[in-house]
Amino acid sequence: MNGLPDYSALWLIPAIMLPIFLIGWVVQLKTRNASWVDVIWALGVAACGVLAAVLGGGDPALRLLTGAIYLLWFGRLGWHLLTRVVNDEDEDGRYAHMRQWAGGKAPLIFLLFYIMQASWVSIFTLPAVVIANGALPPVWAIVGGLTLIVVAWLGESLADRQLAAFKRESGNKGKTCRKGLWRYSRHPNYFFEWLQWFGYPLLGLHAVYGDLLWFAPLIVFIFLYYVTGIPFTEQQAVRSRGEDYRRYQRNTSIFFPWSPKT
Prior knowledge:
Structural class: mainly alpha
Largest sheet: none
Number of strands: 0
């Protein structure tokens, strides 16, 4: 390690992100559109990952690599979400349903939701903080970690492009995408999002607390599979596409890519 560990990002990141999310909450009160929270989250993780790399006290090359990974991965995700929100005048169906369900308590419910999203920025940037304070791992660990992250980046990018192309065709309104990666998994974008987190423990192999990064894939899986990812997306898909999506549920793997049932 070329310098002393610097974990100042652990308090600086929430200190920066909480006011930003509170501003976003105020804006959605006026616009009644909470779709922007996803954009704020993704770009926030990208920026805070870079911040953690800048502040870290570890190997300079490893810090540069960490910042680049976070910028490219979450920056791409943020840009994808931004274009989707800009091109869609309506609020995301998940948040519209949440607003309807909350009724008069919607301002409070969304306030708690925005605060929770701010805390998740801190959670998702923890690997960057740990790795940026570590020593350079062996070559095999760097190659293995980068391979996983690049494959996941390409897979999620492809899944997003395939879904966006499907939605652009006017005849597909109310239908379910079964093309490309979406033929083998109902949530290939979530699968590749999960896959990338196996790369960080390898990059943090020589970092203090680096062993704890092996919990990252498990935590992300729980988030995606049981908390905010798949459950909300599945419920909204059934509401908007009905029986067509129910058939898709019966025939297609929910998460891990697999051959569809016939």
